[in-house]
Amino acid sequence: MPQATPDSPAGAAFAAVDLGASSGRVVLGTVAGEGLTLEEVHRFPNRPVRIPGAGGTLHWDVLGLYRGVLDGLCAAGTRAGRLASVGIDTWAVDFGVLDADGALLGNPVHYRDARTDGMEAEVAAALPAQELYAHTGLQHLPFNTVYQLCAARRSAQWPAARQLLLIPDLLSYWLTGTRGTEVTNASTTQLIDPRTRDWSRPVADALGIDVSLFPPLRHPGDPAGELLPGTVSATERHGPVPVTAVGSHDTASAVVGVPAAGDGFAYIATGTWSLVGMELDTPVLTEESRRANFTNELGVDGTVRYLRNVMGLWLLQECLREWEADGSRQHLPQLLGRAAKVPMLRSVVDAGDPRFLAPGGMVGRIAEACRRTGQPVPRDPAETTRCVLDSLALAHSAAVADAQRLSRREVRTVHIVGGGVHNELLCQLTADACGLPVVAGPAEAAAYGNILVQARAAGALHGDLATLRTVLGQALPLRQYEPAGDQTPWEGAAARVRGSSSTA
User: Fold this and answer.
1) Which residues form the Carbohydrate kinase FGGY N-terminal domain (predicted)?
2) Pick the catalytic residue: 18, 169, 193, 250?
């Protein structure tokens, strides 16, 4: 792959701000010819904060995150000399509220907070679930932005609200002074019509939500302002630094960063969540799709991310935190080695069960789910881990199968990207459960997708998504897992999960 320093005429340097639910990072990407290299220049924790009183609201520490972004961009500017652009992607659905002066009215509330309890019934009374899905195509999740908005407008802050900014748009506003709403993330609000790629006025009117509170929509590749003078001093000696709208929902960027050759692929963007689906040209808005809890989120270049949210590695992350807190900290590579020796499919749970959504007590909740369904209760961390990974592989397989059936498109290869590519056991179990080859990599898919969109907007790369993915496929070391063994045990375990879900 061609190499160049960011200062050289052959190379252009781009900074990707990539924030996840547990950590954030700033990645420096250098494009030289048709080659792309990445370097993580700064990583920082994302630690939510629960505030006592008023029910103990769980907030994002968005000011701490912004400080991490500034430090990371300073490091990127120092390292690169000149940045061609900055792009921001984060998790979805959450937002900040601004007053008439453009000041933030309190730290944004975390989607795992309980403030949306009861809001589903309120929304359904105004707009039945079937009608809501027909307009927006978004899967039912109890923390979708529409439910958060219904809860937020009951707060004492709401009368002062003059504008709403989704998290990546809020950070972009602080960096540039320019406000906008990037469309891939806006599509997770359950207020966007995926056919028109614009606000759904029927939904907004039925729910009494004023979409003019959101600034104008912008699309991946659009300019989003320039870094304000003094914001990041290390970037200023070479002139203004533009900020470029990317797929600001991290999954939208991650799907751009799937190094697939042609079509016929499914993707699993792994991390705290597993986002399992396919890339389509048009949404699937059927009642069957709604009942299968599939979502039609918008992607880059007019695409649709047709996918299902699966609880993901959150299950294992919470168990690891719990074991560390009680003094039995587990070394993950060794734990996965022990889990690989546990008999397969001994106990499985429904990885989509909302009872696993809240933080805390995950080991006990998994044990209780096994007990409730008459399965062996995991006796130690290795058995709990194997239960989690078998259950995730089953959920991945079910989502891939349903995506094919509902979209009437065939999948020949499954691509796993994100943090889960390092979990070899999960990758192999997913191949076994799906009965399809799995290609793992890159772990940094969101950062790659972020930088690819910036580079194309700046003219450093050219072509459609397939062309951009070819750049990745030629540059990255990827690992392929072939399905092994008989599918019958997996089919039996899937039936157990379906049975436990129907009786829960």
Assistant:
1) 17-257
2) 250
